């Protein structure tokens, strides 16, 4: 757990205008900065960043948060990843609870590696301008100069040591560690291993992380050389099992389209962007992994995998299916698209057009159907052996799924197809039907609209999280007995963790990572659309004595309102219990005793409410 004191220190040192300004063009407007919101399409700016409050808020769509929240929302980082990213950028190290915050060197090892990758990328881009063969190849693939610039495409010239002209110290170990050069076994006159450039005579595709930093390269050979595609090796910056080509460039398009299209190669991604599908990404010459899926699901709730229809494409699709299973939930859509054997996405769109490709995407197989097809294919279901084999193959796939409604539906369909009773299939596949989904694989849950006194109580807790530490054990028990117990429990847990330093801005960032984030989002929007004076007191400057005094007064009013809401919830639950008891007519002696106690309790609560 990251200590709250460190988070406050971090946000005090970070300039939110500088963080947001990396991604959004901001202009000064009074005390704040304004720009076009990166989270929804707009023509006039409603997105404001406050340097004094260190907070951003869009009056159009309700997006809001600190610098931590912005990185989470815009780049898809988790809470911990966003904190680590900000800390690295200002030379701080992130402690865990009980540890102490420290300061990293101003130019750490990762920064040095990123720097050499950026310089190499600039060099390759510059070389492309004069490389006629490379330009002709790209034009032959139908790419414009604009799309090549958008993806930062470059060219690594022929020759063995071109990077020697770029870096003063060609023998620097950083170049080797970044994967830009290779040391041969042969030595030079000084006894050093002879060094040469890894990429030669290749179209260069920069691979960026979610912050837009170049962390690796993919190179497509010009001519008949081997291998056709060459990736950077694994480095401290780059792990191909967790990175996706084109994700940085596709983020806004994914948000606009409502889904991400996963294809097999760099050129597919670039060509599809040129042809009207800028929401495509690609795995990096490796099978799709659960980390890939998790990273994509931070951007969207719908993924469409596109594979060639040949045997290799089917194998790749099966691995993608297995990577998806732990993340499959009732409110996510995971699909599999198989093109004709003779086509990849690029060639299909060029031959049949964008509308035809969109139609193919719409017809893609849902995960449930693809899973059933996989386990039932080539099985002689009219024979016991064939049905048994299908259940045998289905077992590990079904066990990998969360125990949710989707899995239940797939099990029903499987039982019907193999002609076995549902309980028998459940037992043979070793499914624990009672295990909740969140024990298997956390997933965002459906939005719940909080109503009545529970809404009143939760809204006050979100506005002033310190209030959570003022509630008695009895108050907390009342909230735990409501139908919104999970939401109250999560919020109160964060209130306790943050203690006296609990504030709206910090709580909203923490809850952005919650499985119940959608339920909180409406409440946050309501809070930020309140009267400007009330809203400003949530983000007051503690050094302003007048604001601090007004904020404390508002805090006391909200505490009284929270307690009143809890009493009303308690009163209503007592009334409901009494009504249920008296409806039954005759009561046992124990029930009569309970009813008498509840009647007295109701009278006390009624007096308190009055």
From TrEMBL:
Keyword NADP: no
Organism: Pandoraea thiooxydans
Catalytic activity: ssDNA + n NTP = ssDNA/pppN(pN)n-1 hybrid + (n-1) diphosphate
Entry keyword Secreted: no
ZnF segments: CHC2-type: 37-61
Catalytic activity, EC: 2.7.7.101
Residue ranges annotated for the Toprim domain, each copy included: 258-340
Assembly information from the UniProt record: Monomer. Interacts with DnaB.
Gene: dnaG
GO cellular component: cytoplasm; DNA-directed RNA polymerase complex; primosome complex
Pfam families with a match to the protein in the record: DnaB_bind (PF10410), DNAG_N (PF08275), Toprim_4 (PF13662), Zn_ribbon_DnaG (PF01807)
GO molecular function: DNA binding; DNA-directed RNA polymerase activity; zinc ion binding
InterPro entries, per the entry: DNA_primase_core_N_sf, DNA_primase_DnaB-bd, DNA_primase_DnaG, DNA_primase_DnaG_DnaB-bd_dom, DNA_primase_Znf_CHC2, DnaG_bac, DNAG_N, DnaG_primase
Name of the protein described by the UniProt record: DNA primase
Cofactor requirements of the protein: Zn(2+)
Any single biological process term in GO: DNA replication, synthesis of primer
Domains as described in the record: Contains an N-terminal zinc-binding domain, a central core domain that contains the primase activity, and a C-terminal DnaB-binding domain.
